[in-house]
Structures are given as C-alpha cells and as structure tokens.
Amino acid sequence: MSNLLSQVKIAFVGAGSMAEAIFRGLIERKVASPQQLYVMNRANQERMEQLRAQYGVHTTNDAQTREAYIREADVVVLCMKPKDVETSFQDLKPLFREEQLLISVIAGLTTDKIERLLATRMPIVRTMPNTSSTIGLGATGMCFSSTVTPANQQLAIDMFEAVGIVSVIEEDKMEILTGVSGSGPAYVYYLMEAMTKAGIEGGLTEETARELTLQTVLGAANMVKLTGEDPAELRRKVTSPNGATHASIQVLDQYDFGEAVSRAVARSGERSKEMGDAIAAQSTQA
Ligand SMILES: NC(=O)C1=CN([C@@H]2O[C@H](COP(=O)(O)OP(=O)(O)OC[C@H]3O[C@@H](n4cnc5c(N)ncnc54)[C@H](O)[C@@H]3O)[C@@H](O)[C@H]2O)C=CC1
Ligand SMILES: O=C(O)[C@@H]1CCC=N1
C-alpha cells in the first residue's frame, strides 16, 4: 500500500449512505484519520452535526466553507445522487484543479461524461462500491480515465481496498458490475426479509426467525469463502435426493428464481445507464 493515503486531504461531496460507508471504513481501518476527511452536504445541518460528533470528521453545509474544502482537497469524492449531478457540477466546476484526483461513486456516470460536464482533463476514477464498505467487506468496481497516473491509480485502489476488495475492470463493464455487487446487498437483504417472514408465518418467534436467517446467510457465505467450493456444489450437498431441500428448490425453479435474479442484475445495469444518460441529456439542454 502506498503511504500517500495517510497524507492527503479527502473531500466527500454529498454525505449520504455511500459517503458514510466509505469514510467510516477508512477511519475504522485506520487508513485515514478523521482530520484528513472533509464531508459536505448541500443542506441538512443536523446530519452534518451527527457525522462530526460520531466520526470527528470536518463537516459543513455552508457554501463558502464548502468551496474552501474543495479547493484545498487533494482528492474529491463525488457522492451525490445522479439527479443532483448537474447543479452540483455547476458549483464545483470553477473550484477544481487538474492536480486534484476526482473519484466518482455515481452510478451510470461515465468518465468521459464527467470530463465533458466539467470541461476538464483532471484525473478521474470511476468506482462502484457497495454499502458493505462500512464494515470493511465492500466490493468495489473501478476504472480510470487516461489521465490517472499509476500513483493515483494505486491511491484509489488503496482507498477502496481499505474497505473491502477492488476489481479494476474495463469501463464498459461497470453497469453489469453495478447489477451484481453495487445493488447486490439489496438482493441478499430481500432474501433475508423473505426467509424471516416465512419463519414467523410458520410459527417461529421474530427473534428466532431473524437469528436463524442471519446465521444461515453468514454461514453460507463463509462456506463459499473458506472451503473454496463452488456454490453449486455446496448447494448439491444440502440437497438430499428427493428430500426437503430438493422439494423447496423445485418451488424456486417453478418461480424461475435464477431467471428473476438474472433479470434483476441486468435491470440494475440498464437503470444505471439510463441515469447516466439522463445526466448528459440535461447538461446538453442547459
Ligand atoms: N447506496 C448505495 O448502495 C450505492 C450508491 N452509489 C452511488 O452513491 C451516490 C450517493 O448515493 P447514496 O449515498 O445512496 O445517496 P444519499 O441520498 O444517501 O446521499 C446523497 C447525498 O448527497 C447530498 N447532495 C446532493 N446534492 C448535493 C450538492 N450539490 N452538494 C453537496 N451534497 C449534495 C444529499 O444531501 C445527500 O446527503 C449515488 O450517485 C449512487 O449512485 C454507488 C454505489 C452503491
Ligand atoms: O440504487 C442505486 O442507484 C445505487 C447504485 C447501486 C446501489 N445503489
């Protein structure tokens, strides 16, 4: 790991769940100190106060202080929603310098669109992290614009490896990656919600249903990780011939479980692209 990360000032524009997941991970893993981190929102003073009290990071939603934070940062992480990009970029554009490193977590927004919207050649790292970065178990996809130096590539990799694993991929694979790992935690939570609900409906207490579901998902994920076995093979081991699991998997097949997941992954990717395209359309009209 390069030691650059412990020396740079990092500004987060947009202080929502993704920004918090990343900076919390950086702090808890001791990869960056709270004093290096500058967190800003357009509004919501209460949120800023809560983040400052909880993590000790610098926070502001005052326009002038925000400008100072951005100008002085070595790394700026763009963490606003796609719908807020256009207005936000208008404010940010005059503040950036080409020596700064820009990191985007915005779904669907390509590096060349960022270059166009900001009229810049500054180095841009496009990422797609996920919320499990909060606990150091994130999975982040990453690609680079042509102006990102090897040192800055390493810095961005180090930053996200501090909160999980990083896959450097070609930019045209970022949408499908979004479908798999960006949105992915939501599919697992959805499955957990459904398993718990079914357990309660079958007569388990809520506490027991939740506990069993959690341990089952945790155990299954760790089995894949620790045994190195293929999920299909591990599934086969649970599925006794003509037994209970065999019968339940048949029900999932009747509802086309695999197809449903496959379509959900693809749709997330498509929706990311739609959001990115919509940003470009707005800016062209402006
Ligand atoms: N939530 C997730 O699992 C993931 C989200 N992302 C991306 O992260 C970005 C943020 O998503 P969330 O954190 O979920 O959204 P969020 O709604 O929790 O946070 C967005 C924040 O940006 C702030 N904001 C909006 N305009 C601003 C401006 N002009 N200046 C400063 N702050 C501004 C809002 O006040 C809000 O606090 C999105 O672009 C999303 O595509 C990427 C990977 C995973
Ligand atoms: O739902 C979204 O748009 C973002 C991108 C992946 C996860 N959350």
Automatic annotation (TrEMBL):
Copy the pathway line from the protein's UniProt record.
Answer: Amino-acid biosynthesis; L-proline biosynthesis; L-proline from L-glutamate 5-semialdehyde: step 1/1
| Highest taxon above the source species | Bacteria
The UniProt record lists the keyword Amino-acid biosynthesis = yes
- Source organism per entry reads Paenibacillus aestuarii
Fetch the Gene3D superfamilies from UniProt: NAD(P)-binding Rossmann-like Domain, ProC C-terminal domain-like
Biological function: Catalyzes the reduction of 1-pyrroline-5-carboxylate (PCA) to L-proline.
Q: List where in the cell it is found.
A: Cytoplasm
Indicate where this protein is primarily found: cytoplasm
HAMAP family in the record: P5C_reductase
Which of the seven top EC classes does this enzyme belong to?
oxidoreductase
Q: Which Pfam families match?
A: F420_oxidored, P5CR_dimer
What is the name attached to this protein's record? Pyrroline-5-carboxylate reductase
Q: Which UniProt keywords apply?
A: Amino-acid biosynthesis, Cytoplasm, NADP, Oxidoreductase, Proline biosynthesis
- Reactions catalysed: L-proline + NAD(+) = (S)-1-pyrroline-5-carboxylate + NADH + 2 H(+); L-proline + NADP(+) = (S)-1-pyrroline-5-carboxylate + NADPH + 2 H(+)
Q: What are the transmembrane regions? A: none
Q: Tell me a Gene Ontology molecular-function term this record carries.
A: pyrroline-5-carboxylate reductase activity
Q: Where is the Pyrroline-5-carboxylate reductase dimerisation domain?
A: 171-275
Q: Which residues form the Pyrroline-5-carboxylate reductase catalytic N-terminal domain?
A: 9-108
Q: Which family does it belong to?
A: Belongs to the pyrroline-5-carboxylate reductase family.
